[in-house]
Amino acid sequence: xxxAQVIPLRPNLLLAGEANHRxxxxxxxxxxxxxxxAAHVGKGQAQLAREDxxxxxxxxxGRVVSVGQxxxxxxxxxxxxxxxxxxxxxxxxxxxxxxxxxxxxxxxxHRLEARCVARPEQVQPIALIVxxxxxxxxxxxxxxxxxxxxxxxxGRTGNGRTLIxxxxxxxxxxxxxxxAKDGGIGLKLIRQLAASAQAELEIESDSLGxxxxxxxxxxxxxxxx
Length: 225
What we know:
Strand order of the largest sheet: 2-4-5-7-6
Number of helices: 6
Radius of gyration: 19 Å
Structural class: alpha+beta
Distance between the termini: 46 Å
Strand content: 15-25%
Number of strands: 7
Helix content: 40-55%
Largest sheet: 5 strands, mixed
């Protein structure tokens, strides 16, 4: 009886398999977000205006773009390797704006510090959160329709935790608005995604704009190697 020869997989094949596994998980997450949107629409009015449908499809397209950007990043990384979150947020936010032709609706400024890292399983929820905040700011920050400016900061706290802040120059939330529980589907998704990334979420607002802060757990945000 012949013995089958076991041929070890090359490292690049192992990396590709791991990346595909992660992206499959992220696509499942994306499908869950679309289902949440579907449930929200089902509870609303019987017919949607053309503009509302266009906005909804843009948001879904933006999430697909985010998953594609992450796949390109993960294909060359190992499961234990921390990713440069700052560089990825630059890529994903620019890809979002360009793919949805939003250049005349938003300007994005990035402020990055050294060693702004996150584990691969956290990068996708964070990128989706940033995308949700960008889309919400475009819709609500300036009721008059003027372009909104968004500043994305990524760095580390005094105790070494990774911190991401996204701020806009809009009118802020309405008076007596509680961002911890109020808001529409966008804020609901942001809170859900922050919980999935095990990130502490803080939302501040005044007449000069809104600010979202995400702080990752120390063991998740620390450089791995």
